[in-house]
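Final report, Chapter 2: Outcomes

The project's central promise was a pipeline that accepts a single protein chain and returns its three-dimensional structure in a standardized token representation, suitable for archiving and comparison. That pipeline is now operational. To close this chapter, we reproduce one record exactly as it appears in the project archive, with the input sequence first and the structure output second.
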Amino acid sequence: MIHRIKFALVMLFFLTLSFFARYTDSPAAEKDAIKPGDKVGIQFTCRFPSGEIAASTSTAVAADSSLRKSRVFMPRSKDDPLEVTAGQSVGAKAFPVPFLDEIASRISMSIPGMKLGETRTIEIRSELPADVPEKERFLQMARIRQRPKEIRMTRDEYKSRTRKDPEVGAEYVLDPAIPGKVASVSENEVLIRFSAQPGSVVETPFGKGTIRENGNQLEIVIDAVKGTPVLTGPIVGRISDVQEKMFTIDYGHPFAGEPLTCEVKTEKVSEAKLSKEEK
């Protein structure tokens, strides 16, 4: 009987400890959790369902050629976290929203309840805002891009464009798909010639392009594919229609109509940055 009483007392002791541990840990957990309105730094790498990386704050991810990147991937020049206000959108909401701003906004809505320093996998989606005018949502572009075989300009014009003095053999970029070089330099004129092998295939922001000649012009015929995500400036859209001479980009799908799976890490925003913002 005595042994049973001792056993019951021991069990009661441990149950009491467990209760107080939970009771005391719960407020601490709530205190450490990110709340709406908190300033938080975020690091993330987001992928399309295909596995291709759509966006990342990591320069190491950008530099790793073994990782498959989407056509819309934009490398960053630094590893600083993006600073957001938990539970709030990032930047202006004028349509269309820049790709990284939309990602940061969607992640910001998902981080309340996380802890600083925590890493979590989050799925985010973005829908077309209501009442977007059709002329703002769709953009038609030519499938055939024409580029001159040569251009002439003054020395001053060349220097204002390149911030360099003209030299024979110097590279001149008008279109990355068709390289150009300075062919001759005179007192009053700089001659630049562009060359590309007809039939060769080059990469463009909208898909593969084939080079062809047409008199004194070089042409890039873009093989636009319906459904392909494309990047124009900081905005992501999706090719929604392809015709013989034109193709249409739909900007109504900020993530090109796909969900993104993001590995997100939260970080503390330094007091120095917070003080600077408050001033």
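Archive annotation: The longest helix spans residues 2-32.
This record, like all others produced under the grant, will remain available to the consortium after the project formally closes.
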